[in-house]
Amino acid sequence: MVNQKSTATAEIGFTHEDFAALLDKYDYHFSPGDIVPGTVFSIEPRGALIDIGAKTAAYIPIQEMSINRVDAPEEVLQSNETREFFILTDENEDGQLTLSIRRIEYMRAWERVRQLQAEDATVRSGVFATNRGGALVRIEGLRGFIPGSHISTRKPKEDLVGEELPLKFLEVDEERNRLVLSHRRALVERKMNRLEVGEVVIGTVRGIKPYGAFIDIGGVSGLLHISEISHEHIDTPHSVFNVNDEVKVMIIDLDAERGRISLSTKQLEPEPGDMIKNRDLVYDKAEEMAAKYREQLLAKAQGAAIPSMTLEEPVVVIEEEIPSAIEEEIPAAIEEEIPSASEEE
User: Fold this and answer.
1) Which helix (H) or strand (E) holds 162?
2) Taking CA atoms, which of 18, 281, 285, 322 is between 20 and 30 Å from 165?
3) What is the full DSSP assignment across 11-28?
4) Distant-in-sequence, close-in-space partners of 214: CB < 8 Å, separation ≥ 6
């Protein structure tokens, strides 16, 4: 009797070597950076095996399963689940590829925050940690940094942990893993919605610099530039103000894009130099002088001329006069204070 198995093999003429060659011929070529569909083949204690159509099941380690912290693979993956995977590394000596979900989430998160920045959106996020430079938050799963000068609260930074803050984007730089946000700017924008150019407000001097004084008006900071203190020349703002002085100022510009409020006492002077010689008179006449200022603004907008008074243009403070708050807060020497957006907690 002829062995049927031997006969079948002889008739088909198909060996194990032929089968391996056929697999090689039709095997897909996978490269690092590709995004491919895959099915969860087996879940292991610290990772999972994924069938992506390669000769050997690919592997995804637990640290690559999510942009957020994962303690067990089952938090992210289920057996027989099919989804997209990022090919992280080429085949190892066993012919196995390493995969990532985290990289896909990471790329899409940066795409989303760029879109939010382009829309000038206000986002809300809870502070999860603080350091000597500021506070740390998460936006779309990415780590974001709020410089200390952009945190508008009188609370100690440490007490902000767990508190949700409204935020605006200052810097979105995927290449440098820098996502920098401003609480102050979000509050300024909200405050700006209730403020008007020509309005008189009462504030408190919170800081004095050679170029002017920073005035707190209801929780947000405005700049009273040295050239807007008086019609008479002033050598330094320290000669007029002290920190914690209560002042009456007029809003002359609202820059929502930069989150800046420009203030003036110069425009409130009944006579040039009154802010130096008779500050109480300036404050007493503030509303009257502000009303005249608003009339001039209206007349100017309508193209009418008012010969009795000359409306001065608000001073435009060039960037060199006021250093960027971000660069002041985050010098190169402490770049490590801003954790990489892709870094694990």
Assistant:
1) none
2) 322
3) HH---HHHHHHHHHHHPP
4) 205, 206, 207, 208, 221, 222, 223, 224
Q: How many CB atoms lie within 10 A of CB 192?
A: 17
Range of the domain at 167: 120-187
Asked if residue 152 is part of any domain, the answer here is yes
Give me 153's structure tokens: 């609260």
Q: What is the tens place of the pLDDT at every residue in 259-305?
A: 788 999 999 999 999 999 999 999 999 999 999 999 988 888 887 54
Instruction: For residue 328, give Cα distances in angstroms to 133, 181, 208.
Output: 10, 14, 16
| Claim: this prediction has a pTM higher than 0.85 | no
Cβ count near 279 (within 10 Å): 18
CATH number at residue 236: 2.40.50.140
Cβ atoms within 10 Å, residue 267: 22
Residue 115 belongs to a domain:
no
At 166, give phi and psi (nearest 5°): -75, 140
180 and 249 both lie in a single domain: no
Reported as type and span, the H/E element at residue 10 is: helix 4-12
Please check whether residues 169 and 261 belong to one and the same domain. Answer: no
When divided into structural domains, the chain yields a total of 3
- Which tens digit of pLDDT belongs to each residue from 94-128? 778 999 999 999 999 999 999 999 998 999 999 99
- Neighbouring CB atoms inside 10 A of 57's CB total 17
Contact residues for 290 (Cβ-Cβ < 8 A; gap 6+): 198, 199, 200, 250, 267, 268
Residue 325 covered by a domain: no
